[in-house]
Amino acid sequence: MRKALPILLGLLVLLILGLFLGLKVGSLDTSYATVFEALFAYDAQNGTHYSILHLRLPRLLLAFLTGASLAFSGYLMQALVNNALADPYLLGTASGASLGASFSFVLLTDLTFMGLYLPPFFALVGSFAVTLVVVLLGSRRGQLVPSQMLLVGVALSSLLTALVSLIMFLSDSESQLKSVVFWSMGGFEKADWSNLGYPATALAAGLVLFFFLQRHLSVLLLGADRAETLGVDVRLIRWLMLGAISVVTGFAVAFSGPVGFVGLMVPHITRALLGTTNRFNLIACALAGGLFLVVCDLISRWIYPPAGMPVGIVTSFFGVPFFVYLLRRKNYRFS
Amino acid sequence: MKQTKFLPFWLPLRLFVGLWCFLLFSACDSKKAVAPATAAFHTVTDDLGRKVKLPVQPRRVMALAPSMTEMLFAVADTATIVGRTQNCDFPKAVLTKPVVNNYPMDYEKLISLKPEVVFATEGIISMEVAAQVEKLGIPIYFQAYDSVADILRGLRNLGFLLHRPEKGNAVADSLQDRLNQLAADSAAGTRPRVLAITWKDPIYVFGRNTLLTDKLRFAGGQNAVTEVFAQPYPALTREYILKMNPEVIIGGSFEQMEKTFFSLYPELRRIKAYRQKRIFAVTDDLMSRPSPRVVEGIAELKAVLR
Predict the structure, then answer these.
(1) CB B119 within 8 A of CB B74
(2) Chain A residues in contact with chain B using a Cβ-Cβ cutoff of 8 Å
(3) CB of B265 within 8 Å of any CB in chain A?
(4) Is residue A26 part of a domain?
(5) Does A146 reside within a domain?
(6) What is the value of pTM for the model shown?
(7) What is the percent of chain B where pLDDT is above 70?
(8) Which of A16, A104, B82, B154 is deepest in the core (most CB within 10 A)?
(9) Is the pLDDT at B34 greater than 80, yes or no?
(10) Where along the sequence do coiled-coil regions lie (chain A) (predicted)?
(11) What is the DSSP letter of B125?
(12) Residue A284: which of A11, A78, A62 has the closest Cα?
């Protein structure tokens, strides 16, 4: 706690600063005073107030939720398969979602149904379906075999990527091709209050559940056998982790597209800062992941106004050097 | 290298075949073409500043872009047009010509049609493809257009290159007349700010440095995008569009756009164009192709803006 508190507080302060800055930056000139007014004395007729509350805030929150979800899932995944290279997409979530979204772009003549935009729905179905297959193939007699799941996940992801390529190759119009490519780059521009609820609920439930199970996670890093002898129900906790990863990642990817690197890097950063067994690790990890994407989205819009460049490019550009620095610090160890 | 004292056995054979072919082809030629000075070439500079050596009077030509095919059909002797790309569909007569895929470029088919020169537009054919075409011994000539006037200039230029200057000038002159009429009609009154959408998710639009800006000027409107971006078709955010508050939106009928655009971005229902229901569909090809039909496109825009 003594180590975690300043770091958690620091992350929180940075996050609030990031959100506040994010609310100020946009096409319409905005002062800090206007941001305050929009938040606390909202005037529906004022275009700037409207933009702040209905465009900038949902966008920032979606960026935050996506980053937090991916970092959270990445942390769990690394603990689940006990491998430093694991990221939340190992279950085939990203490639499954890509396949689902690509299907919708190529097969559907009408992408909206009763006012509902269908690609995120297809992406969600795709990611869950693929996760299910990976889990079925990666388990034996109801027992999850992480190493096997890892391999199945990697193999299936390659297959799905090939399928997406095949769909792109067979698509008979340039516009379908464009849709698939744009989707795969990810982004937060379609953020809307109405679609923030799902990823937020999934993430909150996951965070609460695993806050109480954090000690089990730490023990699991010692290896399944030792965890078992220390009284952890390894089988149950693995299934819980798997469920949380697939739902939380699935919602994040469905609404924002597959943003890379956050889920791999942020968990390591958290461990480098807090150590491997701190009970606030998951919360810090989610906060850091969210903060990271909020900042990356700001940078992307600052470099390439107004729409910003795909956020995945920015995450790698600014994240990798920092990541390498952390990994090379002599006291960092994965487990 | 080993020297041979004797002539190889196949040399007489080759000489014989060669001679035979020569006689055969020259016989065909003498029946078909009576054009004088067939071997005359000149070197010209295209719109990209490239030096291109081509026949003074090319007898086999084709275009590697739909807009350029339309340009050729307006100026060239249509019998000299030897092919089209898979996207060329105007005028209807073009559909009888053999197809050369331009993406990916079907070089073998292109060679088989033996064009003496091919025409291309900037942006559709890459420099890499152009270099490859040149390597095959086929000169490739580029045109580029920043304004409507550039297209008319392009037609006159084609007239010169195809050895039909009167035809090129006549087409350009008649288009200029219609253009002057359209512009005179739309000189008076306020010019509504028009946002033309090319892609809905993410939102891409016709930027300032596209032909549309000039076309709207003739049609009595103005491009709502006033900022010049690096990309001709920039991606915009909802907030940017709210700030522009365009008075007219082009990209689909009101009903279509309501279903496929405003349902995705309900926040944009606040803009003037939506509130006044000034949301229209125009013909895609007229919007996107810099061709002689540009004037038709302007007339369509004008009808919509009225």
Answers:
(1) no
(2) 26-28, 47, 50-51, 54-56, 110-112, 115, 117, 178-179, 182, 187, 189-190, 192, 301, 306-308
(3) yes
(4) no
(5) yes
(6) 0.83
(7) 87
(8) B154
(9) no
(10) none
(11) B
(12) A11
User: To the nearest 10°, the Cα dihedral for B7, B8, B10, B16?
Assistant: -10
Q: Which two tokens stand for residue B204?
A: 């891409």
In whole angstroms, give the CA distance from residue A91 to residue A144. Answer: 13
3-state secondary structure of A62: helix
**Per the structure block, which two tokens stand in for B89?**
């569909």
Select the residue of B234, B264, B267 nearest A54 (Cβ to Cβ): B267
Q: Which two tokens stand for residue B287?
A: 């919007």
Query: How many of the other CB atoms lie within 10 Å of CB of B253?
Result: 11
Cβ pair B242:A307 closer than 8 A: no
Predicted pLDDT at B3: 41
Check whether B38 has a pLDDT greater than 80. no
Chosen from A35, A45, A189 to mutate, greatest number of chain B CBs within 10 A: A189
Rounded Cα–Cα distance for residues A75 and A220 (Å) = 13
Alpha carbons within 13 A on the beta-carbon side of B231: 13
Sorted by sequence, the CB contacts under 8 Å of residue B23 that are 6+ apart come out as none
Tell me the H-state helices in chain A: 4-24, 32-40, 47-51, 57-81, 93-107, 118-137, 146-170, 174-185, 197-212, 214-220, 224-229, 234-256, 262-274, 281-303, 311-328
b/e burial code for range B20-52 (CB count within 10 A of at least 16 → b): eeeeeeeeeeeeeeeeeeeeeeeebebbeeeeb
The total domain count for chain A is 1
Cβ-defined contact of A189 to B260 (cutoff 8 Å): no
- What residues make up the domain containing A109? 3-20+70-328
Say which CATH number the domain at A215 has: 1.10.3470.10
Structure tokens at B112: 């088989």
Beta carbons of A27 and B237 less than 8 Å apart:
yes
**Chain B residues near residue A189 by CB distance under 8 angstroms:** 202-203, 237-238
Tell me, yes or no, whether A54 lies in a domain. no
- Chain B: give the shortest CA distance to residue A180, in Å: 11
Residue A49 lies in a domain: no
| Reported confidence tier of residue B123, pLDDT bands at 50, 70, 90 | confident
pLDDT at B21 over 70: no
- Where residue B29 falls among pLDDT bands split at 50, 70, 90? very low
Nearest to B192 by CA among B51, B46, B301: B301
